[in-house]
From TrEMBL:
Transmembrane feature ranges: none
Protein origin, superkingdom: Eukaryota
Protein name stated in the entry: DUF924-domain-containing protein
Pfam families in the record: DUF924 (PF06041)
InterPro entries, A to Z: DUF924, TPR-like_helical_dom_sf
């Protein structure tokens, strides 16, 4: 097995550990993905940081992994999800977002999207939800709505939740054109309306890989 395929296997095995295909998604899985747990961050740092950085900075593994839907998904998880685990409260947590969008579009436009299971498609669409771009936010809502229609009854309630998550992100971008909660980390000056929004309980997606 090549180094690229071994990395794909490690990423997907770790990320989807404990999940049985076709079964309801448990709270344990949600905590693993979005709980902001220190032990999860540390595991990713110890086992995937070098690979994530090599992929982002050098394009290492991309030629081989982009041949398949699951290979490309493993790159999206490395860049879109693991960046947030590795670089919390740092601008680097968002630096790979444009590349993640490119990879997600590649899977969809190449016709490989439906090769992925519903649980995998949840993470295929997250780069659109993370984007500070209203058209991509609209696309995120659209793709999660399609997922609701495509999945079986065991997964559908979670897919519906992701439609809600996507809409919550979209509302913020529609209002501000960006995520105000990122301003401090990115060194951006907040407007008066953004400060008021955050001070009055506005969305900050705190402790979540959906930031």
């Amino acid at each position: 097995m090549s180094a690229a395929l071994a990395l794909q296997k490690r990423v997907l095995s770790f990320w989807f550990q404990g999940y049985q295909q076709g079964q309801p998604i448990s709270s344990v899985s949600f905590k693993h993905w979005f709980g902001g747990q220190k032990e999860t961050d540390e595991y990713i740092r110890e086992n995937f940081k070098r690979d994530r950085d090599a992929l982002f900075e050098e394009g290492k593994y991309e030629a081989e992994l982009s041949k398949t839907a699951q290979g490309t998904l493993s790159m999206i998880i490395l860049l879109d999800q693991f960046s947030r685990n590795l670089y919390r409260n740092s601008p680097k947590s968002f630096e790979a977002d444009p590349k993640s969008v490119t990879l997600a579009n590649y899977v969809i436009n190449s016709g490989m999207e439906k090769e992925l299971q519903p649980i995998e498609r949840i993470f295929l669409y997250l780069p659109f939800e993370h984007a500070e771009d209203l058209k991509l936010q609209d696309y995120a809502v659209q793709k999660y709505e399609e997922l609701v229609d495509d999945c079986d009854e065991n997964i559908r309630p979670v897919a519906v939740e992701f439609v809600s998550f996507a809409n919550r992100h979209r509302v913020v971008i529609e209002k501000f054109g960006r995520f105000p909660h990122r301003n401090e980390v990115l060194g951006r000056a907040s407007t008066a309306s953004e400060i008021e929004y955050l001070n009055n309980g506005g969305e900050n997606f705190s402790g979540s890989s959906q930031k």
